[in-house]
Amino acid sequence: MMREASSVVDLFTVLDWVALVLLLLSLQGTRWIIESPPRKYPSTHTLMRRYRLEWMQEMAAREVRIFDAQVLATLRQGATFFASTTLIAIGGGAALFNQAERVGTVARDLDPSFSAPLVVWEVKILLIIFLLGLAFLKFVWSLRLFGYCAVIMSAIPNDGSTARAKDMAQRAGHINVFADRSFTRALRTVYFALAGMAWFFGPIALILATMITNAIIWRREFASQTRAMLLEDKPLKS
Fold this sequence. Notes:
By secondary structure, this protein is an all-alpha fold. The protein has nine helices and no strands. It has one domain (43-231). Helices cover 81% and strands 0% of the residues. Helix 5 crosses helix 6 (118-155).
């Protein structure tokens, strides 16, 4: 068993392992940078966190909360859509896994240098399935959290000026933030799953795809027009 595992490892070059480690580190690194950025340089994700908390406080003060329920339903629909889409993609990946030999044949036809044993193609496909599976679990958890938020919103007393109502609104706001955090983590995992497809064309392609994905995520979180617009609003005093 150890010899078989060792032989599989030997089928990949050092550059392959470097590319794979870079992909996985980027997945975790972007999560840390986006969710825990420097205070003087917040990300779009952290800026929106305050609006979600304020939303729940305003919701508790409203007499009619139909609009808030509709907004939350829209967020849940988004999580449901991506969860379903990811599950379909996982099924496609499983079907592709059964056709790994054909994938290798097509790759060799495109470029003889892509020729590799069957197990190499299977490992590359499994990487994509793994990332999509991880994203699916995060989407589902996000959906559950939005559901929890809806229940807490429904339990908030009609009189939003009471201490109990404000406390429950704060709890609903934090649950909403957690749901969004899980949702954005899932989206980033999908991004890197798409980048992982570049491994079919070699480790250099995977490294380039990972770096491009990092650049796209960084721009959207730290250099986008949306972030600039959010920064124009001064945060409320806690």
